[in-house]
Write a structure and sequence with these properties.
Length: 248
């Protein structure tokens, strides 16, 4: 039973990742880019200070020789440049995006929003759906939550920076079946206990598998998980704190 579920989860994760790659390809087709080009552009987009070739290889999960070739290709396309040239050898300094490179990366990030919808479709194929528990949170609500639980592991102190929920780039989500019924997860929402973290050794195997599935799908769609709460995911873009939600 558990082995069958694991195979289903593995297949779902693979479909979600493929959906992400399809969306990326569609949005950058006009630039003539391959997937490794896209990965490099997104990595540099998220590191405005620039990355060395070695750092870029580590972030993208490819070898240094491939990064050197890709950097040469992207430079030739006018999408990246060497911000701080290094001595002797090419691409020993920090690589950064050109204006056109930032445009290509930003267009691809829009593709990740489309991929999120495709990941939802992949979830549905496996009999699951996403349920959003919390998204944008007014600053006033963050102060109230801090009064209830003044523990920075679970609640951001609004006096020292506020929550990413108040920046509009974070969601708290879980899995349900297609009828909207809850499936077994490590804990309930806002369970301020060790069960909330991403160490699943202290929860049932099925709950752990569901949480890992959720993390893999959300990560494949461009979200960053928070180690202290299995339900908490943030976009890699940062926004200012807002008092009210005004989507454009």
């Amino acid at each position: 039973m558990y082995a069958e579920r694991f195979q289903t989860f593995s297949g779902l994760i693979s479909r979600a990742e493929k959906a992400l790659q399809r969306a990326k390809a569609e949005n950058v087709r006009g630039y003539g880019l391959r997937s490794v080009h896209v990965s490099c552009l997104l990595a540099l987009y998220e590191h405005e200070e620039g990355l060395t070739g070695t750092e870029l290889a580590a972030v993208c999960g490819v070898d240094r020789a491939q990064i050197s070739r890709v950097a040469s290709e992207l430079t030739g396309m006018g999408l990246i440049c060497e911000a701080a040239p290094g001595p002797r050898r090419r691409y020993r300094g920090a690589l950064t995006l050109t204006e056109e490179g930032r445009a290509a990366a930003a267009e691809n990030r829009i593709g990740e929003q489309q991929a999120s919808r495709r990941a939802q479709e992949a979830l549905e194929e496996a009999g699951y759906s996403l349920l959003i528990w919390d998204a944008f949170r007014p600053v006033e609500a963050q102060f109230r939550l801090w009064e209830i639980c003044p523990d920075p592991v679970y609640v951001a102190n609004p006096e020292t920076g506020c929550s990413s929920h108040s920046r509009g780039n974070t969601v708290d989500v879980t899995l349900t079946d297609l009828a909207g019924n809850a499936v077994e997860m490590p804990s309930g929402f806002d369970d301020f206990s060790p069960l909330a973290d991403r160490d699943y050794s202290d929860v049932p195997a099925e709950a752990a598998a569901h949480a890992q599935l959720l993390e893999e799908v959300m990560t494949a769609c461009g979200f960053r998980p928070y180690s202290g709460e299995w339900w908490h995911f943030s976009d890699t873009d940062e926004y200012p704190v807002e008092e009210t939600l005004s989507p454009d």
